[in-house]
């Protein structure tokens, strides 16, 4: 192993020795073609022998997941409505994907980092980011609204799969510093065709970074179905080629998603490397408000997937466990309505924008050339204001 | 110059535990140009390592590391091999700070051996600076001599802005007696490397040497040439260039890259806008032709030479 023991204290703490040699290659197998499921379509717990060794999360945990999923769906629906009302420029909904989004994000520790895409707003909301900050980009106020360091959550990546490499890099940095931090990233089914997905899987495998990849297979890349992205049996099959464990999961089963992502994150934090998890789900809404799904899929498909609704499934299970009393339902609905109301109010409030901010934060260092352009815009704005006053437009 | 770059990396690795160096062949081999020679042995696998062979992956992972507080210095091996990383550089490296309202800084350095003149086969001699300088958010610098190479690389690593650090390959073997550590001018300043009174030659990277040779040749014809080494392509030092042009009233800009939409167009437009009434003649661009970079046996016809530059200056109308 090419590792200098003298350097174990470079960062003032023990570093995990890194080897790029062959002996670290782990034996991995193809994922089970039967998606991992812990609660079935009818809301019943799957028999232990079909759980691939994973345990059903506790009823309390499942209730927590359910609560967050109900709040997320109400919120997502509210944001779509606000978009139709013209309050947002666009909004990519995750309706129907709550089990994958919430099941994954609630498995994260506060110290872990999340690298989301534009589709994952409900995951950010569940992570505790203020709705207005999440929607800043979609409303058009500023490209990204929150402090990534405060929430350990990077910006919503629009260029497909690019964020997966950031997750791997940060995982590598955490590993080099000896920190017990995992990184998690979402990648869509379409994005698995991008080169960056391959590079991220491969770098994570070679470097054994503490990274969990969630391939959120919602069946469509805007209009293009999965069959036009891959000839592979499952997207999780790719994992074996990277020497990384891969799992094929029912993405509408919050219990399964949560169990497997929790296990993968634990594995990552203990230094055992990355995991690739494909969650099979369905995008019930259009790609965004400007999309027309009737051109590429039949409404009967949507109806069929609606019958596999992730919320209803978990609800049935929780009812069977007598966890969903009227009082609990009421408190969940109150939470959901509160979040929707807060978002409505805040998104309906007028926001002022400072055009001078355009020139801030392009560089850390001051640039004379940019200062000239800032002064030019300021003078232009001042002249317009003065002209408006002069012509009596302003009272 | 390769040795000066090597020393800069070594000194920064020693000075700051957050500095890491990775890329293709930068480990035990020491890089194809030996710029990272000995660093792997000295600092170990956790500070200097070979990555998988994928440039988008190299830059993309460097972004995540920089977000975590490291200061990655990555190598693209050759100019044309940086193109797979184009998306990561343009869409994330350049924009992350602005996108997050200054909350995320990306202190990373992307070293790119650039330009031709070394008999390289196809894809080994590109001058891709205009792609980077056209991208707001990037700082683009290029040293032309060993002292600057050392000083500017250390400054680039310490910068909180992401820096594209373009290393002219033809200058890797340039020798100079330099006592290290050396600190030259701040890297956003252009420097007058030779004073003159009749013409300002604006050069950078590999063409600084060509410009100095031109100045020698010109002096034999009683033409006094001032040579400016821009050092920084973005930002551009209007002050130093402007002062020179106000003195000489004539300027030409040199580069190896193709002319059309090249960096020289920006320089010519910019200086003309600011100094038009001081100019006695239009600003010339003496550059590569608008063709793909030629194969080794033809590159001598492509690269601007002192003779070609002098001839170009002769096309101006001069007072008798």
Q: Can you tell me about this structure?
A:
The complex is a heterodimer of chains A (395) and B (320). Chain A has 395 residues and is α/β, with parallel strands linked by helices. Chain A is built from twelve helices and seven strands. Chain A has two domains: 21-41 and 54-348, 3-Layer(aba) Sandwich (Rossmann fold), CATH 3.40.50; 355-390. Chain A has helices at residues 59-84, 98-105, 121-126, 131-139, 148-151, 162-177, 195-207, 254-269, 299-306, 310-320, 326-348, 368-390, and strands at 113-115, 183-188, 211-217, 220-221, 224-225, 246-250, 275-280. In chain A, strand 2 (183-188), helix 7 (195-207) and strand 3 form a beta-alpha-beta unit. In chain A, helix 1 (59-84) packs antiparallel against helix 10 (310-320), helix 1 runs parallel beside helix 11 and helix 2 runs parallel beside helix 8 (254-269). Residues 1-23 of chain A have low confidence and may be disordered. Chain B has helices spanning 2-15, 39-43, 55-67, 86-93, 96-99, 129-133, 146-158, 207-220, 238-248, 263-275, 299-302, 306-314; strands spanning 19-23, 48-50, 71-75, 109-114, 139-141, 163-168, 191-194, 199-203, 225-229, 232-234, 251-258, 284-288. The chains are: A alpha/beta (395), B alpha/beta (320). Chains A and B meet through helix 6 and helix 7 of A and helix 3, helix 4 and helix 5 of B.
List the topology elements.
The complex is a heterodimer of chains A (395) and B (320).
Chain A: H1 59-84, H2 98-105, E1 113-115, H3 121-126, H4 131-139, H5 148-151, H6 162-177, E2 183-188, H7 195-207, E3 211-217, E4 220-221, E5 224-225, E6 246-250, H8 254-269, E7 275-280, H9 299-306, H10 310-320, H11 326-348, H12 368-390
Parallel strand pairs in A: 1-2, 2-3, 3-7, 6-7
Antiparallel strand pairs in A: 4-5
Helix pairs in contact in A: 1-2, 1-10, 1-11, 2-8, 6-7
Chain B: H1 2-15, E1 19-23, H2 39-43, E2 48-50, H3 55-67, E3 71-75, H4 86-93, H5 96-99, E4 109-114, H6 129-133, E5 139-141, H7 146-158, E6 163-168, E7 191-194, E8 199-203, H8 207-220, E9 225-229, E10 232-234, H9 238-248, E11 251-258, H10 263-275, E12 284-288, H11 299-302, H12 306-314
Parallel strand pairs in B: 1-2, 1-3, 3-4, 4-6, 5-6, 8-9, 8-11, 11-12
Antiparallel strand pairs in B: 5-10, 7-9
């Amino acid at each position: 192993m090419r590792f200098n023991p003298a350097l174990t204290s470079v960062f003032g703490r023990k570093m995990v020795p890194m080897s790029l040699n062959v002996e670290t290659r782990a034996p991995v197998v193809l994922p089970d073609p039967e998606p991992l499921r812990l609660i079935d379509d009818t809301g019943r717990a799957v028999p232990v022998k079909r759980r691939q060794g994973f345990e059903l999360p506790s009823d309390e945990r499942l209730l927590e997941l359910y609560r967050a999923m109900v709040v997320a769906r109400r919120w997502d629906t509210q944001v779509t409505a606000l978009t139709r009302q013209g309050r947002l420029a666009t909004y990519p909904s995750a309706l129907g994907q709550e089990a994958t989004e919430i099941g994954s994000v609630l498995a994260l520790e506060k110290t872990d980092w999340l690298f989301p895409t534009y589709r994952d707003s409900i995951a950010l909301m569940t992570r505790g980011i203020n709705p207005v900050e999440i929607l800043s980009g979609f409303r058009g106020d500023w490209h990204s609204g929150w402090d990534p360091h405060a929430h350990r959550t990077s910006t919503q990546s629009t260029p497909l799969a690019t964020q997966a490499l950031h997750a791997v890099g940060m995982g590598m940095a955490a590993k080099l510093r000896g920190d017990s931090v995992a990184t998690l990233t979402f990648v869509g089914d379409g994005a698995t065709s991008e080169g960056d997905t391959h590079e991220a899987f491969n770098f994570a495998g070679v470097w054994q970074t503490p990274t969990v990849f969630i391939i959120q297979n919602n069946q469509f890349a805007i209009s293009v179905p999965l069959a036009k992205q891959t000839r592979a049996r499952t997207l999780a099959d790719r994992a074996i080629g990277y020497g990384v464990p891969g799992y094929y999961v029912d993405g509408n089963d919050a219990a399964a998603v949560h169990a497997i992502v929790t296990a993968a994150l634990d594995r990552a934090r203990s230094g055992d490397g990355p995991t690739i998890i494909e969650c099979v789900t369905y995008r019930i809404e259009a790609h965004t408000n400007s999309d027309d799904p009737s051109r590429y899929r039949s409404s009967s498909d949507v109806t069929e997937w609606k019958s596999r609704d992730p919320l209803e499934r978990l609800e049935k299970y929780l009812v069977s466990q007598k966890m969903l009393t009227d009082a609990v339902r009421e408190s969940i609905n109150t939470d959901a309505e509160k979040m929707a109301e807060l978002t409505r109010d805040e998104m309906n409030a007028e926001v002022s924008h400072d055009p001078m901010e355009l020139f801030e934060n392009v560089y850390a260092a001051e640039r004379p050339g940019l200062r000239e352009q800032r002064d030019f815009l300021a003078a232009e704005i001042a002249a317009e204001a003065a002209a408006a006053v002069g012509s009596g437009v302003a009272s | 110059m390769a040795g000066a770059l090597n020393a800069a990396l070594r000194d920064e690795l020693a000075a700051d535990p957050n500095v890491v160096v990775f890329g293709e062949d930068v480990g035990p081999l020491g890089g194809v140009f030996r710029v990272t020679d000995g660093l792997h042995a000295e600092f170990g696998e956790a500070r200097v390592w070979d990555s998988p062979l994928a440039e988008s992956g190299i830059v993309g992972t460097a972004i995540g590391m920089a977000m975590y507080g490291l200061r990655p210095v990555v190598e693209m091996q050759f100019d044309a091999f940086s193109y797979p990383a184009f998306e990561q550089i343009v869409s994330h490296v350049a924009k992350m700070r602005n996108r997050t309202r200054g909350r995320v800084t990306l202190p990373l350095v992307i070293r790119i051996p650039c330009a031709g003149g070394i008999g390289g086969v196809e894809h080994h001699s590109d001058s891709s600076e205009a792609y980077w300088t056209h991208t707001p958010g990037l700082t683009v610098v290029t040293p032309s001599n060993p002292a600057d190479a050392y000083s500017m690389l250390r400054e680039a690593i310490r910068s909180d802005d992401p820096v594209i650090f373009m290393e002219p390959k033809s200058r890797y073997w340039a020798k100079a007696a330099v006592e290290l550590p050396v600190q030259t001018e701040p890297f956003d300043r252009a420097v007058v490397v030779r004073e003159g009174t009749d013409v300002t030659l604006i050069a950078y990277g590999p063409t600084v040497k060509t410009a100095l040779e031109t100045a020698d040749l010109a002096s034999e014809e009683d033409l006094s040439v001032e040579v400016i080494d821009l050092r920084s392509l973005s930002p551009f030092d209007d002050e130093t260039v402007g002062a020179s042009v106000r003195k000489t009233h004539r300027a030409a800009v040199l580069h190896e890259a193709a002319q059309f939409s090249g960096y020289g167009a920006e320089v010519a437009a910019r200086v003309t806008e600011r100094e038009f009434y001081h100019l006695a003649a239009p600003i010339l661009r003496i550059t590569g032709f608008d063709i793909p970079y030629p194969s080794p046996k033809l590159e001598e016809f492509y690269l601007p030479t002192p003779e070609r530059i002098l001839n170009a200056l002769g096309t101006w109308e001069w007072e008798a």
